[in-house]
Design goal:
lyase; 688 residues; 2-enoyl-CoA Hydratase, Chain A, domain 1; alpha/beta; lipid metabolism; 6-PGluconate_DH-like_C_sf; 20 strands; 3-hydroxyacyl-CoA dehydrogenase; N-(1-d-carboxylethyl)-l-norvaline Dehydrogenase, domain 2; multifunctional enzyme; globular
Length: 688
């Protein structure tokens, strides 16, 4: 065995040279790996004893992709292009031996091998689109030449990891080796290549064509999914180039579009989110060896929309759930909704009927709170009323076993106050799920003043187990997400009275990248949530709309008018009501520009995020961004409100807030932290 460098070895198995990479944890294409590959292939090609070359990786995976921590820095060592040229132009057959995942740059390395051998458990993919990028090392030109334009479109715009058996069927892999015997299989395949004088197949020399309609249809079918993102469209353009241009010309298109993306704001935002999603799990002050409380059973109080959705998260991972209601009718309805949700999933082919029954078998219902006596975790998911919640926690304090975690799903109430209803405040925590709780990815884990480290650590670990992304936040009205949402809603309502129509505000926020604006969202949820027909006095625009039975999409009208397919259009009735209210309050309505709408809805959110950081209610600016991306539909390509503030420039945010403060009052007063960062020319990202 000869060591090429610290991460690469070269050995001979008879007449087969074996280049082995070992760069934990994922053999990413750092400069050490690139150098090792370059020098390893150079040496193997020069060795007269070697007739063919196998590339294999140690550890859990093949080359998993680029080392994105090197993005934006000065290049060191051999370039990936030089490595690929050395491999592709090798006069000796090169076989890539794939296990684990060959992703991004890893697959692009495998694509310049003459042949590819994989174990059945391996997966291949080009997931750069998820970082706002496209494959920048020839992947956009080589992949279509093997699998065809249509499969390349699917793989590259979804970033999907394709199982080895599918790769074999589409020609991306040439042979499957026995699981656990990849090296033997790859070496045997290399000998077969030599014995049968199989050609040195260069993917770049293949041709691929596609009807232009294929691309038009693909764009149309995915227009909603790709809205606002540059990377999917740029990936499509590269595949078009592969189908219409010689290989080297297609590479020029790929390089040009890659550079536009890698130096652009969208990819910077998506790479930032990639790291933020990993950082959010790191909790300063809580030791790695903090005791984790075993959670083998979960109790949930409330079988409504939230309680049922929360229950499904635990049932999905095999944790038994007891769900409590006060009336049999409500309990039966809740259990029925859970079953229906699972059956609908089964109809879509995502679950078998056996799995539906298996999950339902883990669920039991009861009308007795005392049945939660043995639960390791109890989650209260009833309506937002402090007195009622404290009453429930007082009862739980007497019922729950010692060591049980007592959690509330409140979205805004003071958890410190709720904890006072118990003799064990250290066991009380907030687990704020987002609706629908079985779908939405975000979980705000809210630590109260006396919540123990074990309860916090257990809650974070449990969140990961049930497939959530959790952000640890502190107690304050609305916590992080809803507290910032209030700022946006406040200004949306204010601007309606000043002259902007609901559809103007919704359009600006939709164009910014949100799935929908605040008024369309209200119509979807139902304007009558929290509204009482008997006590309504027509004191607000919402009251008037509900009194006219304009309660949202479900009644065919709300802020908008809806046709039979629930397509929205601006409503003259709503506009009339708004103008009537404005006249009553002496407001002089005016034209409000799109720029003002955006600034007044978004900049106060950034300012509130800064206040949250000042108060220590969020650990990091990036945690706030994770909350907004995963809980409120903030467009990932804008990186979250705090990252967006950085891209706009904090000095500009402060200047515009002060402008509105001078006209409209101290609602817009910049926070001390925001002013300090702006004055120092710093960003939220610079905070340590």
């Amino acid at each position: 065995m000869a060591a090429i460098n610290s991460v690469t070895d070269l050995t001979l198995d008879g007449d087969i040279a074996v280049i082995t990479l070992n760069s934990p944890p994922v053999n990413a294409l750092s400069f050490n790996v690139r150098d090792g590959l370059f020098e390893g292939f150079k040496a193997a090609i020069a060795d007269p004893k070697a007739k063919a070359i196998v590339l294999i990786c140690e550890g859990k995976t093949f080359i998993a992709g680029a080392d994105i921590s090197e993005f934006g820095g000065a290049q060191k060592g051999a370039s990936l292009f030089e490595v690929q040229t050395m491999m592709e132009d090798s006069p000796k057959p090169v076989i890539a031996a794939i296990h684990g995942t060959a992703l991004g740059g890893g697959l692009e390395v495998a694509l310049v091998a003459h042949y590819r051998v994989a174990v059945p458990s391996a997966k291949c993919g080009l997931p750069e689109v998820n970082l706002g990028l496209l494959p920048g090392a020839g992947g956009t030109q080589r992949l279509p030449r093997i699998v065809g334009a249509e499969k390349a479109l699917e793989m590259m715009t979804s970033g999907s990891h394709v199982p080895a058996k599918q790769c074999l069927a589409m020609g991306l892999v040439d042979s499957l080796a026995e699981e656990g015997k990849l090296l033997e299989g790859a070496v045997a395949f290399a000998r077969k290549v030599l014995e049968q004088s199989m050609p040195l197949k260069k993917v770049r020399d293949r041709e691929v064509t596609a009807d232009p309609q294929v691309f038009a249809d693909f764009r149309k079918a995915n227009a909603r999914k790709f809205r606002g993102f540059l990377a999917p469209e740029y990936n499509i353009q590269c595949i078009e180039a592969a189908c219409t241009l010689p290989f080297d010309e297609g590479l020029k298109v790929e390089r040009k579009l890659f550079m536009e993306l890698v130096t652009g704001v969208q990819s910077a935002a998506q790479r930032y989110v990639f790291f933020a999603e990993r950082q959010v799990w790191k909790i300063p002050g809580i030791a790695d060896d903090t005791a984790i409380i075993p959670v083998a059973t979960v109790g949930i109080i409330g079988a409504g929309t939230m309680g049922g959705g929360i229950a499904m998260n635990f049932l999905n991972v095999g944790i038994p759930v007891k769900i409590i209601e006060t009336k049999q009718e409500a309990l039966d309805r809740g259990l029925g909704v859970i079953r229906k949700n699972y059956e609908n999933t089964a109809k879509r082919g995502r679950l078998t009927l056996e799995q539906v029954e298996e999950r339902m078998g883990l669920l039991t219902g009861s009308l007795e709170l005392e049945d939660l006596a043995d639960s390791d975790l109890i989650i209260e998911a009833i309506f937002e009323n402090m007195a009622v919640k404290k009453e429930v926690f007082g009862k739980l304090d007497k019922i729950a076993k010692a060591g049980a975690i007592l959690a509330t799903n409140t979205s805004a109430l003071n958890i410190d106050e709720i904890a006072t209803a118990t003799t064990r405040p250290e066991a009380v925590i907030g687990l704020h799920f987002f609706s629908p709780a079985n779908v939405m990815r975000l979980l705000e884990v809210v630590r109260a003043d006396k919540t123990s480290d074990s309860v916090i650590a257990t809650s974070m670990q449990l969140a990961k187990k049930i497939g959530k992304i959790a952000a640890l936040v502190g107690v304050c009205p609305g916590f992080v997400g809803n507290r910032m949402l209030f700022q946006r809603q406040n200004q949306a309502q204010a601007m309606v009275m000043e002259g902007a129509m609901p559809w103007d505000i919704d359009r600006v926020l939709y164009d910014f990248g949100f799935p929908m604006g605040p008024f369309a969202m209200s119509d979807l949820a139902g304007l009558d949530i929290g509204w009482n027909k008997d006590t309504s006095k027509g004191e607000t625009i919402r009251d008037r709309l509900c009194e006219l039975d304009r309660r949202g999409q479900k009644t065919g009208a709300g802020y908008y008018d809806y046709d039979e397919n629930r397509n929205a259009k601006p409503s003259e009735i709503t506009e009339g009501i708004i103008k009537e209210f404005a006249a009553k309050t002496g407001r002089n309505q005016r034209d409000i520009s799109d720029e003002e709408i955006l600034e007044r809805t978004i900049f106060p959110m950034i300012n509130e995020g800064a206040k949250i950081l000042e108060e220590g209610k969020a650990i990091r600016p990036s945690d706030i961004d994770i909350v907004w991306i995963n809980g409120y539909g903030w467009p990932v390509y804008r990186g979250g409100p705090m990252f967006y503030g950085d891209t706009v420039g904090l000095a500009k945010v402060v200047e515009r807030l002060k402008h509105y403060q001078s006209q409209m009052g101290d609602f817009f007063k910049p926070s001390a932290l925001l002013e300090k960062l702006a004055a120092e020319g710093k960003r939220f990202q610079d905070m340590k």
